[in-house]
């Protein structure tokens, strides 16, 4: 998911992870992308 560090991209990454999808996050901002990655892992995503 491009733009996964914030907004719709972040919400989409989390929702897909909750559904059991393997999510690949990409964002220009490394810090917010890392936050999204951690949120994905926290909800059981991969």
Automatic annotation (TrEMBL):
Protein name: Uncharacterized protein
Molecular-function GO term, any one: oxidoreductase activity, acting on the CH-OH group of donors, NAD or NADP as acceptor
InterPro entries: NAD(P)-bd_dom_sf, SDR_fam
Entry similarity comment: Belongs to the short-chain dehydrogenases/reductases (SDR) family.
Keyword line: Oxidoreductase
PANTHER family in the record: PKSB, RETINOL DEHYDROGENASE 10
Source species, domain of life: Eukaryota
């Amino acid at each position: 998911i491009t733009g996964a560090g914030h907004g719709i991209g972040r919400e989409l990454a989390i929702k897909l992870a909750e559904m059991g999808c393997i999510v690949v996050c990409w964002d220009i901002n490394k810090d917010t992308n890392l936050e999204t990655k951690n949120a994905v892992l926290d909800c059981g995503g991969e």
